[in-house]
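The passage that follows is intended for readers who have already worked through the single-chain material. We present the inputs for a multi-component assembly, then the predicted structure in tokenized form, and finally a short commentary. You are encouraged to pause after the input and sketch how you expect the pieces to fit together before reading on.
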Amino acid sequence: MKHLLSASDLTRDEAVHILDTAGQMAATQAREIKKLPTLRGRTVVNLFFEDSTRTRISFETAAKRLSADVINFSAKGSSVSKGESLKDTALTLQAMGADAVVIRHQASGAPHTLASSGWTHGAVVNAGDGTHQHPTQALLDAYTLRRHLVGDRGRADVSGRDLHGLHVAVVGDVLHSRVARSNVQLLHTLGARVTLVAPPTLVPVGVEAWPCEVSYRLDDVIVDGKPDAIMMLRVQRERMSSAGGGFFPSPLEYSRGYGLDARRLEALPEHAIVLHPGPMNRGLEISADAADSDRAVIVEQVANGVAVRMAVLYLLLAGEQSTTNRSAE
Ligand code: CP
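Having made your guess, compare it with the prediction:
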């Protein structure tokens, strides 16, 4: 693996290997070995053209826990505001010796452009591009699902290292969600059944070709589908207004039809867990009751994100394959 650009790039074995490695990283943190020397002397650049709290901070934390040097670049306050291009920004950062570039960009495809351009010699990690992909979010979600639902917890009848046998409902603004796209692909690769639930206006054209089921009725999916996990998506109002569209259905209609509240939480199977990638619109896609309930693993998702991103950086920069490549150069 030279880059991580899309969840669809990962085979089942590669994804399981990342999750296993994340488990080892989490174990070192649990033993209070806060810092590993693995990436000493390597430089990780966080190149963020779009706002972020969780992803940017957890990549920074992950890189630092592996002893890498970290350069944080945020488009706000940089020469991007003077019109500097992605190419010139990347060339500037490459001149400072980037071994890996973690990029978030509002344009779908920007990480692929960077990886194929030669503007950077480092590994490129997609930290979210437009409405397209967010592969490390899908990996941390899969890691969280595996920890809670596979083996002796949640669904003891589901065992193994992937998510075979689990049913995950992904609910909400699928149209604008890179998290939904990445999760549908990765969950399918790992053997889970996925049902997307959304109002018709927030379902993308071409969804029939995705490896999942689609429903417009959340209550039916909860009662009949008995999902092992429900993943609530953020309603992305900023992308609706930038696309010139309004919020439809209305916020009240949306939360009545598609919001997770105490009643729906109660109707879920007893072992089912609640995920949300954050940031949350409390009172819209998820009520405060549901977000703060003991079924919600939303804060744990953030912690798991550090372990998963440590695993990704480790495998890209110090894993067997990259070591072989470097010695062959
Ligand atoms: N889940 C996620 O990508 O959150 P941030 O936008 O805060 O990074």
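Commentary: The mean pLDDT is 92. The chain has two domains: 7-133+305-328, 135-302. How closely did your sketch match?
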